[in-house]
Write a structure and sequence with these properties.
The structure is a homodimer of 164-residue chains. With 164 residues, the first copy, chain A, is mainly alpha-helical. Chain A has helices at 31-50, 57-68, 74-81, 85-97, 117-138, 146-158; strands at residues 101-105, 111-115. Chain A binds a DNA duplex (23 and 23 nucleotides) through residues 56, 58, 73-75, 83-89, 107-111.
Chain lengths: 164, 164
DNA sequence: TATTGTTATACTCTATAACTATA
DNA sequence: TATAGTTATAGAGTATAACAATA
């Protein structure tokens, strides 16, 4: 694996702010700010992990949802992931054009989505890449249980209604 | 204050997934996914809080940085917040056009930024809005100390080098 | 040679509105 | 009347490349 930051093992991982600047940071103690910056870092890491599979994080996630819910519709996925119907169209089209998912009309107005054998293999690969990306960051959760940490984040997410 | 979700006090705050869908969620246990969704929710909340001040979250944060670091440059702010130099230009221009910050050439190539009296008042207002937005979400951190939670997020953010 | 500010531009993501067809 | 899928489009946000002036 590529070691970009030279910070793979137990060496002190630059916990100081010297890498960023010498300014006073008035938002470092803000939950929203810390959440956003941490999220962007993890997204960038996962994104580069997924380049091998030629999938974006969103495409990969949609694929996993179809894989876990055979027969679901685009609208279902949109509600689960917070993606608008209009924006689901190119996502599903991309996965379908690569023969990772299939669309079968069931309703006249809705399509049942399913993963193909190739899509099933790709789902496993995606989980592998997510495991690999996640592993490094889980080490930062010193003391706190990952499951508890994630539960807090999900509770945070559900504490406000989705805007749709 | 406006109560959008009907979930201000101690009523059970919809901790189930019924509000979202009935699908199996294959990424609910993923740290990166939970971080991103939580971050988006907090960003949306802060964004609507800041509409009264006619500031975006990024503009508000830049203003706070200038306020906390009189004499800093655009490049300084960009490094601190992870914003590219090119994208700093319209941000500072917007704040300057509203007489919230001033640009004083010091170097021939760099400008010293400072907040005006109006900018100082606006900074206080921004902190107030951030407090208000943050208050609700801090309640979700049952058990875990906010400072510890934020420290983990910042450690997470610093565990990968900024791409710049 | 490296850095600051700047312009122009492209690309991705997301949001809205409207339309068709189905339930 | 509400929902599913679709199209087109607009608006953020972010990215790169190039340039001039300066250190």
């Amino acid at each position: 694996m590529l070691n970009v930051s030279g910070n793979e093992d137990n060496a002190p991982p630059m916990n100081d702010a010297s890498k960023f600047s010498s300014l006073v940071d008035p938002v470092a103690g803000r939950l929203g700010y810390a959440l956003r910056r941490a999220s962007l870092v993890m997204m960038a890491d996962l994104s580069s992990e997924l380049t091998e599979l030629a999938l974006s994080p969103v495409e990969a996630t949609v694929l996993l949802v179809v894989n876990a819910n055979p027969g679901c519709t685009q609208a279902d996925i949109g509600r689960l992931l917070g993606i608008k119907r209009a924006n689901m169209v190119p996502l599903i089209a991309a996965l379908a054009s690569r023969d990772l998912v299939t669309k079968a009309p069931v309703d006249g107005r809705s399509h049942a989505l399913e993963v193909t054998p190739a899509g099933m293999e790709m789902s496993s690969a995606v989980h592998g890449k997510m495991d690999e990306s996640e592993r490094h960051f889980l080490d930062c959760l010193s003391g706190v249980e990952p499951a508890e940490f994630i539960d807090i984040l999900l509770r945070l997410m559900r504490s406000r209604a989705p805007r749709d």
